[in-house]
Amino acid sequence: MLASLRPRGAGWLVLPAAVLLLLFFAVPISWLLAASVSYPQLGLQNFAALYEKTIYLRVLGNTVVISGVTTFWCAIIGYPLAFTMANGSPRVRRALVFIILIPFWTSLLVRTFAWMVLLQKQGLINDLLMSAGLIDSPVALIYNRLGVYIGMVQVLLPFMIFPLYSVMVRIDKSYSQAAATLGAPPIRNFFRIYLPLSLPGVLSGASLVFISALGYYITPALLGGPADMMIAQMIEKQISQFGNWGLAGALAVVLLVGTGVSLAIVHRVLGVRAGWRRA
Amino acid sequence: MISGARYGGELFWSRLRAVICILAVLYLVAPLIIVLIISFSSAPFLTFPPPGFSMQWYQNLFGDPTWFGSLLTSVKILVPTAIIATAIGTAASYGLARSNFIGKPLVTGFLMAPMVVPVIIVAIGVFGVFRKVGLFGNLSGLIIAHTVLTVPYVVATVSAALTVVDQRLEQAAMTLGATPLVTFRRITLPLILPAILSGLLFAMVISFDELVVSLFISTPTVRPVTVQMWSNIRGAVDPTIAAVATIIFLFSLLALVADIIARKRTRLES
């Protein structure tokens, strides 16, 4: 009955945004994806080239490994931070939320540049390590895999922390208290009670980090070396150096499919998990 | 009640957690603080701690027509981008929240897509198409591209606010004879205004920070500040670039604080 009082004609308000995205987002992307099978001529030659040349397989391997390792470290560092946010005093919580929002809102380029300054040969980290007597001469912290990891983990950490936090604040503390009352030592209590309850948060955070990392361009381009090239850099290179729209399109298809498949897996895992928890 | 051993174990774990948290917070924020400090350095290279204080890199930045021009270009892009994205994003959110049509979930997903599709794919596609239709190397092209990238953030923020608004208030207004437009202006708009402002701020920050798409569709004459920074970042770097980074950082920080204040005020009012 009340539904009839709803403004019925509101649906058309979607149109301006939808048309804008159709023309300037969907059309350009479809055009690029179509180039994968139509440039320079119709056929699957671009996908064949991806499969045949080892360099492309290596770049794909790099992309998966770097995204995976980044996700792992984000979880390791993000978990205790999210735990402290969820279980600390309101003051601690507010301070931590603010501190994690700062990098979340700050330009990726600026954050990556900050790491370039810190990690360079005469940078602060090398100075600190040398004055601490841990190393005798500056070590290479940048333009290699280590630099990529240091930068990527920092850049993506907020994407791990916020989903984790939102799950952890909803965990009923009485479960852990009950286990403690029944004599479970803290470590077992954590692994048997808290960790399983927070796992959906870990999974959704990990999927966000992994999926974002797959397509990253700026951070690996500035902090990595030639051996650390990821798929986004390869796509950029095909256009700016070779003008090869076909290969760029094929790589874009691979990246999009990879992103889509990861998303689908996560939805399935999280969906199954949610069902299991409800039962 | 609590045995000594267990208490000691808990103390160890909470201490360890505190140490990890402090290190993680340093890891997240310290690099930005250090760049901020270096931008006021008196030394002509990026060294820390700086040997002395000077404003020369900021003078350099605002005196240099290339740097200052690129900052102006960024502002010329972000203002229209934020206004357009907020207007059409808010309209779309309202349309989605207050109507039912076939394929609504699909349209919602489509409006969110620019958030999920890797930006390099958007950049290359946009580059390929925009240069054929006269949107390459000019402000219009950059504004359109940035609007595409920021609309999803406005839709996400405003849609979240609209689900919280009690629809009975709108229904009551309309029962009393208010037209949909009056109802929106007098009832809905005041309730979702903080979210709209939040979306606006977010759109401004994202446009100001955007690099990858701009990299492909800008030229040396129309070049936003992030692209200018990118083209200087690997060369002989002097603290001018740290000053630019600091300005971009402080802009985000300002927007973040404004956003927090806006949210706090809604909570107090409701």
From TrEMBL, chain B:
It comes from the Bacteria. It is a multi-pass membrane protein. It holds the Pfam family BPD_transp_1. Keywords: Cell inner membrane, Cell membrane, Membrane, Transmembrane, Transmembrane helix, Transport. The chain crosses the membrane at residues 20-47, 67-94, 106-130, 142-166, 187-208, 240-262. This is ABC transporter permease. It comes from Dongia sedimenti. Belongs to the binding-protein-dependent transport system permease family. The lineage of its organism: Bacteria, Pseudomonadati, Pseudomonadota, Alphaproteobacteria, Rhodospirillales. It is found in: Cell inner membrane; Cell membrane. Residues 71-262 form the ABC transmembrane type-1 domain.
